[in-house]
Predict the structure.
Amino acid sequence: MDDGLSPRQERIGIHPAIVFFDLDTVGALISPWIRQLSCGQLKSVVLRANARGRRPRALLVDGEAPMLHDGDVLVEMRACGLCGTDIEKLKGEYTAAMPVLGHEAVGVVARLGPRVKGFHVGDRVFPHHHVPCGRCGYCLRGSLTMCDDYRKSNLSPGGFSEFFKVPGRNVLKGGVLALPPGLSFQEAALIEPVACCLRAIDRCGAKRGDSVLVAGAGPAGMAHALLLRSMGAKVMISDVSEWRLSFARRLGFRHALDAKSEVEESVMRETEERGADVVIVASGSPNAVVQGMRSVRKGGTVCLFGIPVEGSSLEYSLSAVYNREVSIIPSYGATEADTRRALKIVASGRINFRSLITGRYTLDRFDQAVEAASGGGQMKVIVLP
Ligand SMILES: [Zn+2]
Ligand SMILES: [Zn+2]
């Protein structure tokens, strides 16, 4: 009978009957034996610090299968989206959380730690990397992604790994979702980014009939645009890249605006000179934020979605913010309610998110994946084992 083990699982000596122990607690005497059973060579791309002042590097390393503690789940990665934030981490520009590479990962449950309930080896899953505690002052006041625990939890050693560990608390708090049979791993890798967009759209209150400018036509901007269009909003999208603008036009976005010249004027023209009801800035560029501030209508909302590059500040008149009653609403991350919603939307196939995937690279070509994603000729890049 098929025991459900993949060739990779066999290579690293994974077997459902073997429980991973924490070497620290098991003791030195039997640890060599456990080491033999539990470790093997598995590929991971991890971030390594460099000399001061130099960018960190992504290194493909051979590592050991992570030890599983109470409640942990080991997942065999099948697809992991490369996010703009991964590239920021590699450039040393990322400011939001700890620098683990790869958080848009999906795969198959390969092993269960002690006392895991509700999952089985072989289950196809989406594991959320950050999960709030649900009990602290931030969580109780609805700021779930501001929970101190949220950014502390993560996949280990990260999503760009043949196998990675999902911490027990993420499993316990509902961070791991079962994938429906018809949903491909590559599409499922879009659940996390789509969930973040859903939360941003909620927070800025965009709704049917609104004029919305999405500033930034990268993968996150395009995911916003697709969601907003499906909600019945009038979508305009801007970028400095002609390649991205023509990509947006190919997906039917007529109002794809060149951010180097025409954004404010075009938005005014399309909105009877009022300005956009909502602007979603899906770019870390301060220029995009300023352009958003100038393009939003009086009483409108500018949502900061892209993570601003380190050290940047907003050069915009505070009196104009006040006199024009502009709301600035940042949106960071997603909650479990958002990932559940995103899973449903992605699985429904109603929105063609798949069309955003333009590049696929295996782990050992990770550097090429990064080069392609930063080079401007790719939309969403997916890394495969
Ligand atoms: Zn991301
Ligand atoms: Zn909390």
